[in-house]
Every structure is written in C-alpha cells, then in structure tokens.
Amino acid sequence: MNTNHEISPSLFVKMVLTAWQLQNTRADELLAALSDEQLMQETAPGRNTGTYLLGHLAAINDALFKLLGLGERLHPELDEIFVDNPDKSGKAFPSINELKKYWNEINTALTDRFTKMQPAEWFEKHNSISAEDFVKEPHRNRLNVIITRTVHQGYHLGQMAYLKAPTP
Amino acid sequence: MNTNHEISPSLFVKMVLTAWQLQNTRADELLAALSDEQLMQETAPGRNTGTYLLGHLAAINDALFKLLGLGERLHPELDEIFVDNPDKSGKAFPSINELKKYWNEINTALTDRFTKMQPAEWFEKHNSISAEDFVKEPHRNRLNVIITRTVHQGYHLGQMAYLKAPTP
Prior knowledge:
mainly alpha, about 0% strand, about 170 residues, homodimer, 8 helices
C-alpha cells in the first residue's frame, strides 16, 4: 500500500481551513449551550463579557473579506463597538439575537467564498502587507491570516468557556 | 519585480512553525510578567490555576516528542498531574521554578528537533493516526498536529491572561 501523498497546496489549504472551521464549530456549540443571561456575564470578574467577545469575534471574522480581498464586509459597524472600543465603552450593542445572526451570516458567507478559491490564491498577498515586505516574507500570505485568526479565536473561546458553570 | 513565490512544503512549514513559536513567545512573556503569587491564583473563580495550566501546556508540548516520533519525552511524569487529573487533585506539583525550567527545556529541545527536520517529513503520519485512516485523511499529518497544538495553547493563554491585573 502506497502511503505517500502528494504534498500539494490543496492539502495545506485543507489543513488550515479544517482548523478554522473547527474553531467556528466550537464557538457555535458554546453559543448553543449558553443562555442569554450567561452570555451577558463577565467571563471573569472585571473582564470582557461573553456578548462583547461574540461581537469581537464576529467583527474580526467579518474583517477577513477586505483583508483577503474577497469583497465588501457584511457588518463594518461592529468594529467601532467591538474592536476599536472596550466592553464597557457605553456604546449600544446589537441584541444577542442580532449578534448571533451576524456571526452565522459572516461565517456562512466566508465559507462560501473560501470554497470557491483556488489553492494557489491562498498563497497570494493579503491587503495588510506591502508588496515589498511580501517579497521578503512570502509566508505572510492569505492562508497565514487564517492560521493567526484561528489561534485568536481559540484564545477568546478559552475565555468564553468560563461562562459555563464550573465542573464541581 | 516578480512577486510570484514557489508554493513549497518549506513555505507551509514556516507558516505553521512561526505560529507555534509565537504562542511559545507569548507564554514566555506572560510568565515573565507574572509573580509566583499571581501564577498560583485561579485564572477565574473556581477555574484552573496558572500553575496547573503551565504544567498542562508543558506536558502537552512534551508529548509531541512521541506523537511526532522525535524520541523520548523529557518529562512524562507531568501527564499524571497535569493531563490525566484536574487541578485540585491533591497531587503534589513541581515547584514553579521547576515547571518554568521544564517548559523552557521542552520547547528548546523541540525547536532543536524541528530545525533538523526536512519539510517533507512534516507531511508524514504521526503516531496517533492509523495507516488506514491516514490514507483517507492525509491532512492529518505531523504538521497538522502543530496547528492544533498552537490553537490549544492560544486557548489556555487566553485564560492565563486573566492572571494579570485588569486594565482599569
């Protein structure tokens, strides 16, 4: 039996997108397990609420449209509330139902775009690196952004997990 | 100017190892910023202490030696305390100084092994997947383990960040 596989760009894209999708699924599962009351709580005393972190993760995923050159983002208004300002800024939040709807819309639209991309497109430059820097650091491509965003999402999911009741 | 880069296995490896290394560096920076008293605290009420999570992350990284077939692990004794049992199991922990020493030893030794690996070796099977499954799912290779471990480390670093004093 031949167990040698071609080391192809598509294999590598699959590795990264599988990891990204897994974090989205874990977030979905956590959101399904939490009541609105739990989601509104601080993740730890004096720390960000679950609602703020949900809005933050939605905004960061939404920003991928422009960063990766995939078109207009769906909810640019989230940045002022959930990225440029901290949790208790006094800014009005969308309702939890709206935030969950945005979260799903954004991830569905991203997944749709990702499905249509050719593997080689993932290794092109994204919009936050200069052409000069990209020549020197070609690993800082579009797919690399998905790796860093996946880790970022894991970071905040670790915090949001504290919204669940502790295991006795 | 030609901005086309070869999409090579070595480029993939660099993307993933850069992400892994960044999480280790962030952990190092957090450890340097925390006093022993802070590290011994719970990350949130009723949750894992910083000491437990440091031991947990050290154990999970140490397990990479066997999982990736890179030789014997340095501190197998960590698993019983920090992986197989929860924080308040009553088991005696190594001292914080010892844990920090192990953490550095493990990561230095892993980095040394990683540096000596050829890119293609990263796309081989690891020791927790059967040959049969690997034929069907070749994306579950050694490099993929580093992606999942990097996200796992980000998850717990998000929690350990709560050991720092909150921003007023």
